[in-house]
From TrEMBL:
Source species, domain of life: Bacteria
GO MF annotation: an example: phosphate transmembrane transporter activity
Assigned GO CC terms: plasma membrane
Upper taxonomic lineage: Bacteria, Bacillati, Actinomycetota, Actinomycetes, Actinomycetales
Membrane topology: Multi-pass membrane protein
Organism: Actinomyces howellii
Name of the featured protein: Phosphate transport system permease protein PstA
Amino acid sequence: MSTSTPPVRGRRPSAPEPVLRVDPADPLADPVPVVDGVPLTSQRLPEWFVWAALGASFVVVGGAGLAAGLGAPAILVLTALVWVVSATAVSWVKEGERWGRNTALTVLVYLAFALVMVPLVSLVWMVVVGGAQRFGPDFLLTNMRGADDTNGGVYHGIIGTLEITGIATLISVPLGLFTAIFLVEYDGGWVARAVTFLVDVMTGIPSIVAGLFAYTLFLMIMGPRYQAGIIGAVALSVLMTPVVIRGVEEMLRLVPNELREASYALGVPKWLTIVKVVLRTAVAGITTSIMIAIARVIGETAPLLITVGLTVRTNVNPVEGSMATLPVLVYDQYSRGETAAMERAWAGALTLIVIVMVLNLLARLVSVYLSPKGGRR
């Protein structure tokens, strides 16, 4: 008597094995695996296809646009539209629906990036062109004392900007770093929730309010008519601290908990784990957050107009007398409307951009040097 194995309830039938099929039109090509008549692979276009489609679209649309008398903006817009449609259509036909959609989204991402870069590049180009006429060693190493239309620089503004921003950084970075560590590494309960709420509120306060706060604070302590760089530094620190807290907090949350647990398992105390493991792991992100906060305040004008004022001489003492800063100096020169003053204003804006760029490069070097290296030593 023969017996048969009953089918197991709930077991799915096995998937059919793929069959290799050779294309009759090209017998020398590699066989394609096929399941139930559906090929498992499709023909892929080369990686340079998207850029070739862009070049072809630009040539075709540019030639037709010049013949029709269109301007450069119209030609660029039409080129972008033709690029999206043509690249997607060719990919859809040659590679299939899935890769066609992928090509469409890829082209749209490239276009979005180019659209974002347009105002940035145009702004930098405008500042470079406008400031190149005055920018130079004489402009960077002289102040406005006794200046006429042919001379006068921003040396006093550079000194004031660096001193005030540096003092604000010395105030904000420790406060922001320790507050972020408290919010992430310690269970603060309702205190942590209250601090988070206050940080969110401080992030959105206008800069003029920070300037009025610092001016009123020193007015009660030092008396009326007191202007000094330290007041501007306090005002900038009010704006800078919440940015540092938010940035450092997010970077600390990205550190895997497994690193903390491994350190605790070795008997390392909590404070040393934070210093040696958590902060070392997140040092690149922390440095970036600090630089974002510095860039946020280094160009502020309104709070410095109230607290620091403006002078034509170089003042290196941040606790006595008015100080010149680059943003206020640029605003003052631009408001004059004269040709020489306008040139100095553009050159001062270029100087501020160069300072921010140099600070970012130094921050990158610091983060690379302090970041944990891979491998064992």
